[in-house]
From TrEMBL:
It comes from the Eukaryota. It is a multi-pass membrane protein. PANTHER family: AQUAPORIN 8B-RELATED, AQUAPORIN-8. The keyword Hydrolase does not apply. This is Aquaporin 8. Belongs to the MIP/aquaporin (TC 1.A.8) family. It is found in: Membrane. Residues 1-21 are annotated as: Disordered. Signal peptide: none annotated. The chain crosses the membrane at residues 30-53, 65-87, 93-119, 154-173, 224-245. Pfam families: MIP. It comes from Alosa alosa (allis shad).
């Protein structure tokens, strides 16, 4: 039955003519997905940084939470069929570990995401006033002021990234639980994470989101937390799916 479905997909005519759909070429397989990761990450980081820089004090965490979550949902929905809409290094690594992409595309995706992070932060710097930009440290994560905060912040980044990455894996990679609602699910998870943990770590969950403003604002204090935490959380989520929650193809035990 599966072979017949695949054959019918290959024989399906292109819109507007009767020619069979051709397999994707090199541009569509390699270059276009990387460009989509750059563009998607750029606009996600840009919108996220502006929401922090121009945050109305009375709004507190609500404004950045809604903006980051809705931006993720929109960009994921728009570009899912081009690149998979990762826009986040922990997502890419976790998706690879769960068999959702080829190893040859991992490094290009990671590089593309980091480039997008820097470009997005640069766009936010051009758009916002110098005063607001300096007051917000360019939307870099400046909430950590002492070593006493490290444990909570690092744990927060690990646990919250684990949660959102698990939503990505179960909603987009795991056959048993795949859902067309995954853009909404991921966006909502980002919102609730920021609302819950914004005052603990700033809720980065994404090294590309941390790198861009750090480069543009020159703010590097405790920057490593926003790499170690999210990457560890992504790997933890991949482990949970591979060992316990994945379908028969993904799960490593109890086949």
């Amino acid at each position: 039955m599966e072979e017949k479905v695949e054959l019918s997909e290959l024989e399906r005519p292109l819109r507007g003519n009767k020619k069979p759909a051709r397999p994707p070429n090199m541009f569509e397989r390699i270059i276009q997905p990387c460009l989509a990761e750059i563009v998607g990450t750029t606009f996600f980081v840009f919108i996220g940084c502006v929401s922090v820089i121009e945050n109305v004090p009375a709004a507190g965490r609500v404004q950045p939470a809604l903006v980051h979550g809705l931006a993720v949902a929109v960009m994921v929905a728009c570009m899912a069929e081009i690149s998979g809409s990762h826009f986040n290094p922990p997502f890419t690594i976790a998706i690879y570990l769960c068999g959702g992409m080829q190893l040859t595309m991992v490094i290009p995706y990671l590089v593309s995401q980091l480039i997008g992070g820097v470009l997005g932060a640069g766009m936010s710097k051009l758009m916002t006033s110098s005063e607001n930009y300096l007051n917000a440290s360019g939307a870099a994560f400046d909430i950590l002021k002492s070593d006493d905060q490290l444990k909570g912040a690092l744990c927060g980044e690990i646990f919250m990234t684990c949660l959102v990455t698990m939503v990505v894996l179960l909603g987009a990679v795991n056959e048993k639980s795949k859902s067309p609602m995954v853009p909404f699910m991921v966006g909502c998870t980002v919102i609730i994470n920021i609302l819950a943990g914004g005052d603990v770590s700033g809720t980065c969950l994404n090294p590309a989101r941390a790198l861009g403003p750090a480069v543009m604002a020159g703010y590097w204090s405790y920057h490593w937390v926003y790499w170690i935490g999210p990457l560890s959380g992504g790997i933890l989520a991949a482990g949970l799916v591979r060992v316990f929650l994945g379908d028969e193809k993904i799960r490593l035990i109890m086949k």
